[in-house]
Amino acid sequence: MTRSGRVVFFLAVAAAGAGGWYWYQHRAEMTAAATPARPVGAPVVAVSTEPAQRGPLPIEIIANGLVVPEAVVTVRPRVDGQIERVLVEEGQMVQQGDPLFILDSRLNEAILAQQEAQLARDRALLARAQADLVRYQSLRGEGYTAAQRFEQAQADAASAQAVVRADEALTSQTRLAIEFASIRAEMAGRLGSLPLRPGNFVRQAENVGMATITRIDPILVQFSVPERWLGEIRAAMAAGGEGPLVSVVPGDSTAPPTEGRLIFVDSTVDTQTGTIMLKARFANPERLLWPGQYVRVTLVPRIEADALSVPAAALQVGQQGRFVFLMEDGKAKRQPVELVRMNAGRAVLSGELRAGDRVIVEGAQRVANGMRVMERRQGEAPAPQRVSQATP
Questions:
Q1: Cα(200)–Cα(197) distance, rounded to whole angstroms?
Q2: What are the φ and ψ backbone dihedral angles of 186, each rounded to 5 degrees?
Q3: Any residues with CB less than 8 A from the CB of 76 and at least 6 apart, and which?
């Protein structure tokens, strides 16, 4: 390459380098202008707050319960006989007095006919004996008959009357046996399985159950609570009225709770578990509660008139105990508290906390004592919790 060619080459390389440097500088200036400046100082955490509230709040005792029927009746025969008809189906709802089974009663009907004929004969004998008694009584007054004959007439009339009463008792017993051949429901409820069908012979002495009737409405829920609540429960029961309010929800249901009343407190505390057994009664016309079903129970023995509470999410637990974060002058303040109880998603607290103090509910896990905080705007999503930060 000649000397003039080398000069032209070096001039071209220099021009290209100058253009590249200018492009790099221009791009850096544009990127810096588009990137927002980093805030100076400690970051501000967006949080959601709610005021601490003071006012009436029910005391709730939470437990697990079991639905139990108030009564179960086993249907058994009261006379011997063969089943002629089954008038109901398994699982059917019945009312008190509804016919369930019909037994063959032809033998008892024949016996009744025989007893009624014997009763008619004995009544005729009684009428004759009474007529003789009247006749001998009139003759005795005139001296035509001996006293012994009159006494015999009295005895014959009394004996005939006793025979008639015995016949009447026998006919009543047979009629009752015929009535028992029609087996009826002794209470309203739901039928269980029916192990016997038409053609089976049943005997009173064998004590065989023909069916079971379970009362569904009303129904009971049995549950146990720790003995520390015994004083509250006894005071609520002693107050009179319908009894403390109890609400239940089946374990697999999202339906509204069913409300009832506490009706029974066991006479002793279970020393092995330290609990006491209770029962509540519920109206169950729609049969939402079923015998043997497990339910979540909430018992309200009374309403506390002046309870200080915050949302349960605001309560934090540290090495030094429980605390909440207050939002004061744009900063988070750690405030120690004591937990009294939990109630329907709220924590009832005691300590140096006043009604109206704004406690941090959402974002409390991302703040520390003295950190700058701000109220999150409505509809703004919470910032994700930062786990690690890369070094720039």
A1: 6
A2: -85, -15
A3: 204, 207, 208, 209, 210
Cα pseudo-dihedral 165, 170, 174, 180, rounded to 10: 80
What CA–CA distance (Å, rounded) separates 151 from 107?
Answer: 42
What's the whole-number mean pLDDT along residues 2-16? Answer: 49
Structural domains in the chain, sorted by start:
46-57+305-375 (2.40.420.20), 61-70+216-301 (2.40.30.170), 74-103+182-214 (2.40.50.100), 105-180 (1.10.287)
Query: Cα separation of 273 and 227, whole Å?
Result: 9
| Residue 338, Ramachandran bin (φ over 0: left; ψ between -120 and 50: alpha; else beta) | beta
User: Any idea which residue has 């569904």 for tokens?
Assistant: 216
Q: Quote the pLDDT of residue 21.
A: 43
Length of the chain: 392
Cβ contacts of residue 2 below 8 Å, gap of 6+?
A: none
pLDDT tens-digit map of 60-101: 888 999 999 999 999 999 999 999 999 999 999 999 999 999
The DSSP code sequence of 343-386 is: ETTEEEEESS--TT-EEEEETGGG--TT-BEEEPPTTPPPPPPP
DSSP 228-246: GGHHHHHHHHHT-TT--EE
**Residue owning tokens 């139990």:** 68
pLDDT tens digits for 205-231? 888 899 999 999 999 999 999 999 999
CA 46, CA 42: separation in Å to the nearest integer? 13
Please compute, for residue 298, the number of CA atoms within 13 A of its CA located in the half-sphere on the CB side. 16
CB 261 within 8 A of CB 245: yes
Rounded distance, CA 284 to CA 195, Å? 27
Q: What DSSP character marks residue 388?
A: -
Strand duo 373-375 + 45-51: pairing: parallel
- Asked whether the predicted pLDDT for residue 19 surpasses 80, the reply is no
What's the pTM?
Answer: 0.67
- On whether the CB atoms of residues 77 and 103 are closer than 8 A, the answer is yes
**Are 48 and 358 spatial neighbours (Cβ–Cβ below 8 Å)?**
no
Neighbours of 335 (CB within 10 A): 18
